[in-house]
Amino acid sequence: MKHHKKPLNRSISVGCVLFIIALCVLLSVANLTMYKNYVYVDYRNYIDAILNYTLSEINGDDLKTCVETGEESEQYKKTLLFMDHMMDHFDDIHYFYAVLPLNTEETGNTMSVLSAERYHDRYIDTEGNLYLGWISDDEFDAATAAQFFEIMKGEGIVYFEEATEWGVDYTGAVPIRDSKGNSVAVLAVDIDISFINGMVWQYAAVNILVILLAGAVFIAIFLFWSRRNITQPILRLEQSAVGFADRSHGQRDVSALSFDAPSMKTDNEIRSLSDAVVKMTEDMRDYVTDIISAEKKAANMQELANRDALTGIRNKTAYDNDMKRIAVKLKDGDTKVGLAIVDLNFLKIINDTHGHDMGNIAIRKLSRMVCMIFDHSPVFRIGGDEFAVILRGTDYDHYDELAARFNAEIEALAHDGSLPPWEKVSAAIGAAFYDPELDDGIDSLFQRADHVMYGRKKEMKANRKD
What is the DSSP letter of 375? Predict the structure, then answer.
């Protein structure tokens, strides 16, 4: 028995273990992300309530005057008192303030407009209190100052997380506007979330442990099942097949070929495979029938060799063969030959943006369109996104009408808002008709048709820019 470098049993075991590990990692990351997002949603709702409630208490016009004059109005003092009460009411508020960004330098980049304090800090230990007009030294870095500028320009609440020397804060910030809609300052609240990471990782550890235990149980069960139902039956089948190969090597007596079927305790595809091998050895005795069948298959293969697998139309091989026959006709004086070239636009963009499966859909759709319009002529796919039509009969006589119809359908697809991008097939068409004064053969005819097609493609691109 041959010793395999990669026995099936080992490959299945390794593959199963790697799959379960990857699945465990994926599930753990997914659950961790979902849990963390769930926690953050609660904090965002919490921050929303604080900021929106506070905005309802702020008079933007009055605050703008205070910022410009540096003087605290009565309304300003009421607002500051309101914010102090909010600080005292919510223990997890780290900072609650309004600032005006001045520049994006490393220092002196923001001015304090409103700064809430807890009762002790406001009236007892007042050393660190901030007042209207105070310019920060290094409380905000340049990136945060730049972010404040963006918030001033925008609408709604912006959230971001920042690490400080005191822990991790989750910040929500919103612009304060006056009655004319002009930004006055940025109102922000910092919520201390230092404990969240520990809580999240604790949840993740328990979650990962449960998933790993479940994965280990699954691996054990799957390996036992696969050994009983897959690897052992395949091993017995291999032994029988190798024995048959050794006995039949060099055998000229077809009737002497026999296969000893292995004992199969399973009733699955492997047993069917064993039965099929037995049947195959019996069919080998009828080798004359097989030869006839092989000849028929060879004819079918010849037909398949001239078909494009993606679209079902004739391929480049069939096109080259037809061109050789047409070249002979030209030498015999039959010069009624027309050739149209169709090229699909934007296939690379579709493939890169939406995937090659969507690109294949576009190719097949264009193929059907060309075949329907030029239904009296053979159509060939001669490249990845290029088609050729050998114009015959009424298609040859009425090419201009058919080309106009083709361009109209392409234009209609481009303006059909119900279609996805890959269904909005865009293509250029060009044709040439054999002229003894211009053409010295099939190649020059193709080059002229291709040149017309590329002229149309440039025209389409120019119109598209417009």
Answer: T
